[in-house]
């Protein structure tokens, strides 16, 4: 039976979406990945582009609230930003909640002079998230 893992971020627009995409791609045979936000900010197009450059298609994802997810008991909830960690909702049952924060690509790229320059920030964070995702089998309860 696959373990259910939720990646939680503030707006479910970038980091949590990337994490879900990587988890589905790399660990889809053992993990059922979900992502959601405390708020919804829409799917970030540069996150989609950055993931596509790495061969992962998240273009069909959408920004969603945690309350929109199926009534599933998660085995693991991972907050990927400080705001989500500080405002993490209560999850019933024997769920493990951990925090593993990543830099915010839109914030890093806000003064970028071009899309290519902005994408460098997204790609760095994308790769850091991938490195974390491959460690999940040792973390998931």
UniProtKB/TrEMBL annotation:
Domain (Phosphotyrosine protein phosphatase I): residue spans on this chain: 3-139
InterPro entries, alphabetized: Ptyr_pPase, Ptyr_pPase_sf
CDD domains for this protein: LMWP_ArsC
GO biological process, one term: response to arsenic-containing substance
Key words of the record: Arsenical resistance
Pfam families: LMWPc
SMART domains: LMWPc
Name the record gives this protein: Protein-tyrosine-phosphatase
Species, as recorded: Desulfocapsa sulfexigens (strain DSM 10523 / SB164P1)
Lineage: Bacteria, Pseudomonadati, Thermodesulfobacteriota, Desulfobulbia, Desulfobulbales
